[in-house]
Design a protein that fits this description.
The protein has about 140 residues and is α+β, with helices and mostly antiparallel strands. Helix content is about 55%, strand content about 35%.
């Protein structure tokens, strides 16, 4: 009878160990999944921040282009070589070149590690300014 009781006791302990092992495995898998979800969430935030910062730099750069176009409206012979503007932590550098009546405006804007460049080709006539091409480079 002792042997039967010992067998039943050992069998119950093995069931407990199997349950404990299953709980440990489930906890480890859950922890790993949580860690990966957190990493993906933080990666998404980083991507969103980079996109927003890039768009802010692009908006500022386009503002510098518009200011340059306004300068051409005021003075058809306006020219800029590495002319700089800044506002808070945004900076832009303006360069212009001419070929006959077509003017080429190249502006590079930056804020920290984020850079955007825009090139615009315009024609100036008595009626005003005509934008022929506006592209991000």
């Amino acid at each position: 009878m002792n042997k039967v009781f010992l067998f039943k006791s050992t069998y119950k302990n093995q069931k407990g160990m199997a349950a404990l092992l299953a709980v440990v495995i489930i906890c480890a898998v859950s922890l790993l999944m949580s860690r990966n979800s957190l990493a993906l969430g933080l990666s998404g935030l980083d991507i969103a921040y980079s996109y927003e910062k890039g768009q802010s730099v692009l908006n500022f750069t386009e503002g510098c282009v518009e200011e340059t176009i306004r300068q051409f409206q005021l003075d058809e012979n306006y020219s800029a070589v590495d002319e700089s503007f800044s506002l808070n932590d945004f900076y832009c550098t303006i360069n212009t070149s001419s070929s006959s009546s077509e003017k080429i405006i190249t502006v590079t804007g930056n804020s920290g590690d984020y850079y955007k460049s825009v090139e615009v080709k315009i024609l100036i006539n008595a009626g005003g300014v005509i934008i022929n091409n506006w592209r991000e480079i």
